[in-house]
Known about the structure:
The protein is α+β, with helices and mostly antiparallel strands. It contains 17 helices and 22 strands. Helix 8 (315-334) packs parallel to helix 16 and helix 15 (473-480) runs antiparallel to helix 16. The chain is globular and about 100 Å long.
Amino acid sequence: MTSTSTSRSDSSSRLTHVGEEQPHTDSARPAKFTPQHSFEVEEAALSPPSTGAKIWRRRLQRAFWLDHPRVRRVWLYIRGPRPKVDLPDPSPFLSLTLYAGHKAYSIALEPAWIRLTRAFTNPWLFVVLAIGYIIGFAFFARAQSFLTPPDSFIGCTATYWAANDGCGLDGQACAPFDNATFDFRCPAQCSSVVLQNPRTVGDEQVDFVPLIVGGGDEHRTYRGDSFICAAAVQAGLISDSKGGCATLELTGNFTNFLPYSAHGLTSIGFPTIFPLSFRFLPTTSLHSCSDLRNEALAFNVIITALLFLVLRPKPIVLYWCLVCIGFWHVTLFSQPQASPPPLDTAFQQFLPTLFVAYAFWRLAFRFVLPAFRRAPIEASVWYLAPFWTGVLTNLTTDKIPIDRLVASDISSRPGGLTALIVIVIILLVIVINQVRVIRKTGWLPWYLGWYIAGGLVTLVLSQLPGLELRLHHYILAMVLMPGTGFPTRLSAIYQGFLLGMFLNGVAAFGFDSILQTPADLRRDAPLGSDLPSFATNSTTYNASVPFQNQTIFWNPLPDGEGWDGFALLVDDVERYVGAALNYSLAALDPGLIHFFRLAFTSSGSAGDFTMPATLYPNGTWIDPLPGPS
């Protein structure tokens, strides 16, 4: 236990937070100053001391404490010991002496391991192996992304057909519809890439699943807006864990897409005609198609374990190895920003990443990582397991129903609010424990001051008009990291996870702004615009009129809203754009179900579409549900 009555010569070395590190000696040390003290010394040199002001300040302070003894006790508790003290380094778990009666049993695994591997700690051996690792990693990355033609790579959400009116009138912007083939390569783990907002298909809405329509017929025919990679996984052409290559063929018009379930994925049906569909061919001309992210992960985990357990470079060298390995693993393997990875963008993000990582070292890692220099086995456990958990945040948090810390996302996803409450409770317990640790050193007021100042700045930013506060996970890591700079095992665990989470955020998404516009956050969600309404309804539709002579109607434009026309989707394809108030059904097949969705337009841009009105072959008209689709 560290006594709170430590002499001034034992005061906390954390006073050098922003200065140069001071060597630790048993002799008398030169005076150390916090940044505040430094300003006080400079000010004292420029102006004579105000002795009278100091006397009056002390008298007022003494009088306040006498009048408010409870406040003084609370303040003294929060302030902690004076002078400030350092926490002792953790004693290695695997280097213990156990007493049983008059006998003592020693467990000295850590010292034994250190002696056994001392020959491998030569710095020149580390340099040679580091060069070998860089060369090997480069060949690994080449095999992963640069042996397949670049134009064959597609993302997990690649489709041939855009949502709503994205393909234009009659879908001409998405032509050709048939007589074309495409060789493609998909990354791994596409089954977990899902719709983040509801998508309307016929009279159904799907969300939080991969968009797959059809595939249930004998030829495995999919609608053109299906996610190609997820459909290929369902069809058994590629592996979800390894990705792969396949070839598809566009087959044009197809009627009655059937639902299908296979390989852990379920598609939905579409009972009418659609102008673009595709099928997969049994063979492909592409090669070197396997996604090597799992092999790369195993390789990098082994390398980091060797660094901690065998090579054991200086703590600062070990730290920078973690930073570089984690960043480039995300960039090239686990979550690249595009396929193949854009190396120019990667290097653009790498330099600011190193700058922030240096701040992490100065504020937190240099106080904790060296504390485990006599316990390499422990350090590898406390750091590496949470580090790789953070680096693979896209996988380790995949089942948590929270995609972004945005109110609309949390409220729209089932279980999102519950998950947020659980996360907040866990985070609160962690913060309270860290506050308890910091208070023991006497640094709590200093940290509280900075966090309160940061909170006030964040509050001001959140009130800026037209912008919304967005706490990306790399920002959360930057906020929480300074509070982990105390040599405890829990601090080591937090540091490993936060560093990995930070690297995942900046390597996969870049340094996204903390402030974003509603348009940035909306994705493909409804705009919130006005909705038109059909004049034709279940009461006014006359089923006795022959289908070829039927016309559906909608209500006129509202006055003063800036709208100048309408866009009509028929069976999820834009079939009309203009100012008319009706549409003839003469071109439609009377033997099929048909779906109608309507939107206002302004200068050619459509607002939100209504929910679908449904017309059955027997003449039954189902009115649309309220709200946008």
